[in-house]
Each structure stands twice: as structure tokens, then as C-alpha cells.
Amino acid sequence: MTVLVAGGTGRLGRLLVRSLTADGERMRVLTRDPAAADELRAQGIETVVGDLRDHEAVERAVDGCSAVVAAASGFGPMGSSSPQNVDRDGNRALIEAARQAGVAHIVLVSMHGAGPDAPLELLRMKYEAEQALVASGVRWTIIRPTAFLETYLDVVAQPMQKRGATIVFGRGDVAVNFVSVVDVAALIRAALRDPGLSGRVIEWGGVDLTLNALSGAVHA
Ligand SMILES: NC(=O)c1ccc[n+]([C@@H]2O[C@H](COP(=O)([O-])OP(=O)(O)OC[C@H]3O[C@@H](n4cnc5c(N)ncnc54)[C@H](OP(=O)(O)O)[C@@H]3O)[C@@H](O)[C@H]2O)c1
User: Fold this and answer.
1) What is the CA radius of gyration of the chain?
2) Which of 4, 53, 92, 150 has the most CB atoms at less than 10 Å from its CB?
């Protein structure tokens, strides 16, 4: 049976798709990017080109799947994607389409700190998606990772490579918890195999580091 990864072109999704493909799993990716879809198809991965906000594309994406991993996000500066229309509404549409298609299990990649009164809109939208999933009646696993280490290493390293200096937010001395995407992908892989991880909200973190420590490590 096929596993759909929405967000399968992202930093986490790419790694997850690669590792599940290596396990012999039949994989499908929903992406808005036709060039990324071509690349994935060349690697033997099924693709559906479309947007989480497009019901017809989402229906095609879940058709015939045994499991769905919801790993997309509309957080970021570019385009028309937003936490409301991707992390909340897009995930809700994906969950509903998966339910109607008889998908057995949905793994939702949420975020540490998700909650109804969280200070960040993204975290409130993640919580709304979590609620929709729990109410769906489909077997579920919710994963709440902390900040992705590799993403923040890029944020710190790229200006360092270009200008020999980097930017930290604030004074850079507040500890933040970071987790490697490798560990997040490993947990999703385990959740897809182990029924004992179903019906659970799993907080998933790694090391506490300040941004000053992170930029010091990159500079060294
Ligand atoms: N980054 C972090 O520190 C962090 C921490 C905790 C949890 N998370 C969660 O972990 C997951 C993966 O994060 P990431 O940083 O690996 O993601 P990313 O690299 O930012 O990639 C975002 C993904 O979302 C997809 N996407 C965005 N808008 C979409 C839309 N309208 N329709 C369909 N797909 C859409 C993109 O696909 P295309 O562009 O190919 O369409 C891409 O695959 C997300 O759910 C994120 O919220 C991230």
C-alpha cells in the first residue's frame, strides 16, 4: 500500500520519503512544484502536483493510500501559503479526504507548543489541525517536534559564508530546544510501523542551545 507525504519536498519530508523508499515502501508526494515532481518521479516516487487547498488534488493524492503523513507548512515569508490556509485548513482538508478515502492512519507533524492559546498563530493553527485529526475517527499519531537543528544551522551559516558574520535574534542568549530532522523522520517511520504509537501526542526534542552557541559552533 502507498504512503502519502504532504510536504514531501520539504526539509523533513525529503528525508522521510528517502528513508521510507529505502525500506521498500511505495511512496507518493503531493507538491505544488512540477519540477520537484519530475525529479521525484525519476526516483520511482509517485507524485500528485497540486495544492493542499485544492480539494480535487488532495482527493487524488490520498486515493489508494494506507497512511498519510501531514508534513506541509505555510509558515514563511513567501507566497500565498499561510498558517491558516495550510497548517489549519489544508491539513483539515487532507484529513477529511483521507477519512473519506478509507486511509487507515494519519501522522500529523505539529509543533512543540501547539495549543489553543499559544502566542504564535502557527501554533494555534497546528492545534486546530490536531483537533480535527483527533475528531476524524481515523487512527492518528501527532508529533510535536521542537525547532529543526538543520534549518537553524542554515539560518546561522548562510550569512556567515556570505559576509563572515551572522544575525541572531535578540541577544542570542536564550536557550532553545533543537531536534535533528533525522530524529523526527525516524520517529515518523516508527509511528507508521508501531501501533503502540497511535492515539498519542508525542513531544519530540533534542538539545538546548542558545543561538550564540549555535553561531559559535558554525564559526569554529
Ligand atoms: N522547521 C522547523 O523548525 C519545524 C519545527 C517543528 C515542526 N515543524 C513542522 O515540520 C513539518 C516540516 O517542516 P519543514 O521545515 O521540513 O518544511 P519546509 O522545508 O518549510 O517545507 C514546507 C513544505 O510544505 C509544502 N507546502 C507549503 N504550502 C503548501 C500548499 N499550499 N500545498 C501543498 N504543500 C505545501 C511544501 O511543498 P511544495 O513547495 O513542494 O508544494 C514543502 O514540501 C511542517 O509541518 C512544520 O510545520 C517544523
Assistant:
1) 18
2) 4
Q: Read off the DSSP letter of residue 85.
A: I
Q: Distance from the CA of 110 to the center of ligand 1, in angstroms?
A: 11
Integer Cα distance of 75 and 62 in angstroms:
23
207/193 Cα distance (integer angstroms): 26
> Residue 10 Cα, ligand 1 centroid: separation in angstroms?
5
Q: What is the value of pTM for the model shown?
A: 0.97
CA 44 – ligand 1 centroid, Å: 22
Residue-wise pLDDT for 48-106, tens only, equals: 999 999 999 999 999 999 999 999 999 987 678 899 999 999 999 999 999 999 999 99
State the distance from the centre of ligand 1 to the C-alpha of 141, rounded, in angstroms: 18
Q: How far apart are CA 7 and CA 109, in angstroms?
A: 10
All structural domains of the chain? 2-145+181-204 (3.40.50.720)
172-204: pLDDT as tens digits:
899 999 999 999 999 999 999 999 999 999 999
Q: Is 33 in the pocket of ligand 1 (CB under 6 A)?
A: yes
**CA distance linking residue 188 with residue 10, whole number of Å:** 15
